[in-house]
Predict the 3D structure of the following.
Amino acid sequence: MAWRRTRSTEPARSRPSRHGRHGREGRSPVVRPPLPPLDTRVDRFDLAVGTAAEFLRSAWSELRDVSFEIADMPAASDDDGIPRWTVLSDAKRIILYRLPIERLSHLHRDDELHRRMMIESCVFRAAAEYLDRDPWDLGPERFRFF
């Protein structure tokens, strides 16, 4: 006996509209929900330099016209070391080099706080070199409560 399909007396169930052609659920949209912006090392470096530079500009009137700039690497030089920054007093520019500061600095604890402190200390030392002062003299009010 051949198999035959018989019609049942039950009414046919209609599929919900969320099912597609083959009975699968709807697919996700191409564009995902908005994600927080990516936080890269370059962005964190720019933020640390910018906040330290703004603090120094507000504390020292001699630094208000100075341009704090960020470059990846210094130009090749003949001396032994790789500079972390360059101070151009005549042009009123301080150039900080991101890669030597990030990669050649030896931190005793490699975490976000200590990396930021290293970047800020380089900004303070470069500004102190520009002003021909000691770096600890640049922010005395900041450490008064100790």
Notes: The CA atoms of residues 87 and 130 lie 6 Å apart.
